[in-house]
């Protein structure tokens, strides 16, 4: 229900985006979303104070309706499906920009970072606010590249609804599956928009089938295309039984503002009318299967002739099953060719939920507020529940924080929530969920060293990295204990490249990156025991502790670097009460560096068998002894290096399929299946991440630039002995 916070830089001020949420009392709610510093190229998107432009709406003119007429939505998709182009058309038709920007030209509203405009991709989510037919819409354009999955995660976590954009020639793609799973996780109702219906190879039926089969959902066909690929010229509204055609003969040529709706008739469009009737009947039957109340209506009044069921009865039923996430409406169009966007906006307002229909409630009060429009903002005096705003300052906040004025106000909100417990049960909501959990941050899979040009610049680099980590939790920075070098850990080659570029542009620090390396993990193959004693005298106080631990392999469904900690029965309860935190801190510290290569430990259980203490021994000494003892036990066991394996999807024409398969075989790739997608072949498999360095260049060469690929972390698997020994030799400098 909430939307993602952005931090903008304007007039030397950094601002953070907040969401004002629904409330139980008359106070409002504010929840922090994320902190994102920006350097942008300026473009005047709207009539700000002092500017007179009759054809573009001012941000100050945005309506402030009741909460039921607010929509907080995200645009999500696989990379290059057309999210940003769709967002650009939405802003144009709603009247907030004068001309249509283009991703290839680098002049879209929401891709305002220099790195985004140079590469033609979305890197960080951007918020815009506009109105449409009496509704206020707060929209977030999210990235589609796998390296920036966390950006999508922290947006979907707090959105009320989402528009999933698909390339109609490709259907469901690799990153589509990822963002769809994220939306499922956060229970976000969705609308599907089949974009690029004008593209060669576009197929409405193929795209719908892929949604049904791969996403395991029920698509509700609210529109049918009139033509496909080069012949695409409009669509049929199945609900109203109207033909929607865009006028390309106006003075503005094909800007898409002008279109006509006309009823389908037997005289003009007999075949189209027949197809639309069949689709409408199927839609009615489908919704009746999902909603008993609607089924009673249909069976009671319209059983003889579904044609008599008016759109006014059908719209609420579609909305009901959409908000309940029993099905997803499917619409179509071409954002690039300016077709289908206005009906999409209508669907957003009709079928996606308002903030008060979602179940995150909390209390808060905030001071200065600003209204976002990508890289511009204006100050506003107040904001009602369910909206997005910016605030200035918040220097200590980070992504996932819930902002409260005091601890007492949080406790008071929880007490009020318990009193309303019966009301919340209908949302399956517990009082503890009022404080939103932090986002689930994936572990980095790449790392490299990063150095400033001189020692004098190290503090500036440290400050830049601290700021970037706060706004991007998927970025990890650590200090190598042996070399003293700063280590940068990220989600992929592009992620680290973007971070390095931002440090240079935004913070003015020239940096040098070391070779990109893989983030391996380590585990053990058998059990091992160890005992260790730490005996220190500090001043007149003696600290003496003896620890006995056992380590053993522990297979888990989800591989994690969080230790499984167990205690022997002979460990006294009073001892645990005093020293449990110190013991577990010691075990976690030992987990950070494995005995082979110093990578984190995974899938190992640690049992504390005995603990003997001299009276007065400090918790710090206990923690240090436990950590050293666990490391000693790990060294005694047989050890194994684990390497990250990636889910791989390569889309290639049949002419180059054999070359791609031969290359993947050399990369230790495992092919699971080869799918057909129109005229292309989709190779689905898994491959070690270490074998995929520089793969994009190789794939371009193999396919003459026609193939594309997507990677997503699958799991960590044991390396075979030969590869492990080769890796150990390389790391020790012997190879």
Automatic annotation (TrEMBL):
SUPFAM superfamilies the record matches: EF-G C-terminal domain-like (SSF54980), P-loop containing nucleoside triphosphate hydrolases (SSF52540), Ribosomal protein S5 domain 2-like (SSF54211), Translation proteins (SSF50447)
CDD domains in the cross-refs: EF-G (cd01886), EFG_III (cd16262), EFG_mtEFG_C (cd03713), mtEFG2_like_IV (cd01693)
Compartment(s) of residence: Mitochondrion
Catalytic activity entry: GTP + H2O = GDP + phosphate + H(+)
Alphabetic keyword roster: GTP-binding, Mitochondrion, Nucleotide-binding, Protein biosynthesis
InterPro entries reported for this sequence: EFG2 (IPR030851), EFG_II (IPR041095), EFG_III (IPR009022), EFG_III/V (IPR035647), EFG_V (IPR035649), EFG_V-like (IPR000640), G_TR_CS (IPR031157), P-loop_NTPase (IPR027417)
GO cellular component terms attached to this protein's record: mitochondrial matrix
HAMAP family registered for this protein in UniProt: mEF_G_2
Assigned protein family: Belongs to the TRAFAC class translation factor GTPase superfamily. Classic translation factor GTPase family. EF-G/EF-2 subfamily.
Name of this protein: Ribosome-releasing factor 2, mitochondrial
Native species: Sarcophilus harrisii (Tasmanian devil)
């Amino acid at each position: 229900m909430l939307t993602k916070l952005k931090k903008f830089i304007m007039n030397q001020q950094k601002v953070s985006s907040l969401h004002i949420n629904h409330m139980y009392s008359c106070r409002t709610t504010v929840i922090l979303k994320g902190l994102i510093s920006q350097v942008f190229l300026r473009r005047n998107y709207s009539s700000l104070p002092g500017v007179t432009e009759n054809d573009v709406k001012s941000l100050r003119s945005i309506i402030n309706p009741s909460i039921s007429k607010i929509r907080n939505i995200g645009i999500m998709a696989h990379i290059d499906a057309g999210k940003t182009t769709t967002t650009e058309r939405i802003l144009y038709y709603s009247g907030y920009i004068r001309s249509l920007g283009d991703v290839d030209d680098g002049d879209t509203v929401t891709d305002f970072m220099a790195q985004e405009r140079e590469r033609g991709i979305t890197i960080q989510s951007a918020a815009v606010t506009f109105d449409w037919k009496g509704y206020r819409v707060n929209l977030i354009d999210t990235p589609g590249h796998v390296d920036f999955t966390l950006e999508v995660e922290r947006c979907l976590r707090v959105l009320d609804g989402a528009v999933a954009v698909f390339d109609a020639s490709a259907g469901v793609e690799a990153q589509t599956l990822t963002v769809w799973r994220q939306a499922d996780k956060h229970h976000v109702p969705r609308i599907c928009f089949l974009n690029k219906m004008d593209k060669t190879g576009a197929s409405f039926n193929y795209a719908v089938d892929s949604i049904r089969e791969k996403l395991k959902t029920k698509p509700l066909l609210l529109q049918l295309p009139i033509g496909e690929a080069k012949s695409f010229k409009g669509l049929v509204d199945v609900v109203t039984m109207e033909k929607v055609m865009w006028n390309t003969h106006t003075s503005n040529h094909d800007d898409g503002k002008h279109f006509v709706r006309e009823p389908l008739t037997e005289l003009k469009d007999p075949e189209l009318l027949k197809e639309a009737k069949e689709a409408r009947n199927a839609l009615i039957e489908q919704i009746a299967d999902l909603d008993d109340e609607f089924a009673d209506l249909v069976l009671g009044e319209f059983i003889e002739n579904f044609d008599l069921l008016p759109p006014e009865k059908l719209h609420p039923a579609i909305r009901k099953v959409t908000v309940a996430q029993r099905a997803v409406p499917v619409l179509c169009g071409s954002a690039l060719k300016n077709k289908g966007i206005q009906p999409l906006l209508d669907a957003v307002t009709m079928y996606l939920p308002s903030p008060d229909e979602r179940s995150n409630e909390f209390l808060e009060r905030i001071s200065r507020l600003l209204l976002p429009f990508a890289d511009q903002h204006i100050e506003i005096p107040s904001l009602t529940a369910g909206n997005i705003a910016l605030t200035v300052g918040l220097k200590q906040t980070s992504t996932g924080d819930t902002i409260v004025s005091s601890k007492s106000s949080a406790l008071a909100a929880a007490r009020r929530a318990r009193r309303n417990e019966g009301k919340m049960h209908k949302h399956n909501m517990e009082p503890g969920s009022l404080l939103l959990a932090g986002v689930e941050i994936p572990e980095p899979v790449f790392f490299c060293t990063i150095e400033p040009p001189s020692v004098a610049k190290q503090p500036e680099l440290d400050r830049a990295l601290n700021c970037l980590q706060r706004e991007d939790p998927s970025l990890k920075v650590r200090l190598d204990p042996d070399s003293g070098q700063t280590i940068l850990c990220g989600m992929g080659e592009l992620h680290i490249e973007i971070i390095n570029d931002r440090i240079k542009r935004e913070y003015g620090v020239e940096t040098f990156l070391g070779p990109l390396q893989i983030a391996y993990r380590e585990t053990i193959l058998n059990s091992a025991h160890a005992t260790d004693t730490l005996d220190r005298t500090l001043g007149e106080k003696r600290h003496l502790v003896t620890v006995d631990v056992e380590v053993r392999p522990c297979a888990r469904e989800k591989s994690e670097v969080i230790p499984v900690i167990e205690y022997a029965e002979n460990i006294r309860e009073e001892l645990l009460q005093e020293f449990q935190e110190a013991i577990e801190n010691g075990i976690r510290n030992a987990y950070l560096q494995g005995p082979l290569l110093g990578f984190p430990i995974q899938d190992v259980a640690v049992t504390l068998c005995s603990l003997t203490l001299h009276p007065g021994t400090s918790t710090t000494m206990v923690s240090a002894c436990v950590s050293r003892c666990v490391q000693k036990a790990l060294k005694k066991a047989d050890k194994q290096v684990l390497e990250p394996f990636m889910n791989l999807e390569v889309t290639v024409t049949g002419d180059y399929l054999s070359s791609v398969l031969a290359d993947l075989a050399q990369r230790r790739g495992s092919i699971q299946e080869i799918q057909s997608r129109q005229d292309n072949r989709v190779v689905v498999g898994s491959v070690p991440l270490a074998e995929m360095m520089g793969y994009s260049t190789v794939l371009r060469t193999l396919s003459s630039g026609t193939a594309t690929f997507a990677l997503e972390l699958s799991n960590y698997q044991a390396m075979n002995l030969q590869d492990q020994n080769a890796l150990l030799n390389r790391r020790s400098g012997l190879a």
